[in-house]
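Need residues for this backbone.
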């Protein structure tokens, strides 16, 4: 699907409402700790400003549940966005009320305004028509550049797009193009590496990707459900008993279709879920009661890295272990380094995988680093995202 994009719009002198994804992590002092999503928004905003648009940015941050909560104010984003944009950013502590309307109408050509957190308004997540009307009334055109929210049928994602001429931003259009490429025309061999905690969170992605990949490597907490499905004891490891039969069927299907399904041959286990727990590496069939797997082992990481090294297309989503804790970070680090070193076309899904790549200083060696965790997974499940469906085709 070719979306109608912002570079096709006449924006000079017009108020343009841009739905961004500034849902960034903040520390205890309210400072932005990872600015990937802010940096990703810059190309579209620069394009609009260079063409003399009057830009009104809006975003959510966290889950304030429809009421004002200063812990989730977008004010800390203002200096970060201004620095990366090289442009002054005005801020209004209002979403779509009188103060926001006044600030929007006072904008001059080439100026930019950031509204307060959309989710301070209960009508945002409900896609309330009255709230969508108030938000749309701030502008003359709408640009959706928030891929990370494209799977949400919220007022700022769908409601405004139904009320104003709507365009995809460069980020949104790029995400859809690159992720769709994985589904429709990947160069082969195509290897997918999936981690994270729960099989239930990613079963639909596993099912959809299995029909498209040549090899699927599984790590993270969800690998223990796969190991249990093969009859292995997993001790106190994270394990979803209700997913065992679905996982068995995935294994049978992989065998029928000639797909390689890689599971850990060794794991790093600990006697407690803690950074300083006693830990050791054991074979995957050697997990004792009272111990839990918190990372794939070095042999498994090496096998996954070798598979990645022989691929022409690689998709990775989800850490291999509890990478925030150094004793259980080696598997994720080895996979990240293998993806970065690969000559393949590489895509890393959002969320923890993107954070790991950034933390390791490897982001600039990935072909496409997605800003959308849930949205990228839903697209790879084969679902139609509400935010994408709301944009007319070119």
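Answer:
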């Amino acid at each position: 699907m070719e979306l109608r994009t912002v570079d096709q719009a006449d924006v000079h002198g017009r108020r343009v409402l841009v739905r961004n994804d500034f849902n960034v992590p903040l520390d205890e002092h309210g400072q932005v700790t990872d600015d990937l999503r802010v940096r990703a928004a810059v190309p579209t905003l620069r394009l609009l400003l260079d063409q003399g648009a009057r830009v009104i940015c809006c975003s959510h941050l966290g889950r304030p549940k429809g009421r004002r909560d200063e812990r989730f104010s977008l004010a800390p984003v203002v200096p970060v966005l201004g620095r990366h944009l090289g442009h002054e950013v005005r801020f209004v502590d209002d979403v779509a009320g009188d103060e926001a309307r006044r600030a929007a109408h006072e904008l001059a050509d080439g100026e930019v305004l950031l509204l307060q957190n959309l989710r301070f308004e209960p009508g945002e997540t409900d896609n309330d028509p009255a709230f969508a009307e108030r938000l749309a009334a701030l502008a003359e055109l709408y640009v959706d550049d928030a891929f990370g929210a494209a799977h949400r049928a919220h007022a700022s994602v769908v409601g405004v797009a139904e009320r104003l001429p709507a365009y995809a931003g460069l980020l949104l259009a790029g995400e859809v193009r690159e992720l769709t490429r994985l589904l429709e025309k990947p160069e082969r061999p195509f290897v997918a590496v999936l981690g994270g905690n729960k099989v239930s969170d990613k079963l639909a992605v596993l099912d959809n990707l299995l029909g498209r990949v040549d090899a699927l490597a599984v790590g993270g907490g969800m690998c223990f459900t796969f190991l249990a499905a093969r009859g292995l004891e997993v001790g106190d490891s994270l394990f979803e008993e209700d997913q065992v039969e679905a996982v068995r069927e995935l294994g049978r299907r992989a065998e029928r279709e000639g797909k390689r399904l890689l599971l850990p041959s060794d794991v790093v286990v600990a006697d407690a879920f803690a950074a300083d727990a006693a830990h050791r590496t054991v074979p995957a069939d050697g997990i004792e009661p009272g111990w839990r797997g918190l990372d794939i082992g070095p042999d498994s990481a090496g096998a996954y890295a070798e598979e990645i090294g022989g691929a022409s297309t690689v998709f990775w989503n989800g850490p291999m272990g509890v990478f925030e804790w150094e004793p259980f970070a080696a598997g994720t680090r080895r996979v990240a380094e293998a993806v970065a070193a690969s000559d393949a076309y590489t895509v890393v899904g959002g969320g923890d995988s993107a954070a790991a790549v950034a933390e390791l200083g490897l982001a600039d060696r990935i072909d496409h680093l997605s800003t959308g965790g849930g949205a990228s997974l839903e697209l790879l499940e084969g679902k139609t995202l509400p935010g994408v469906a709301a944009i007319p085709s070119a």
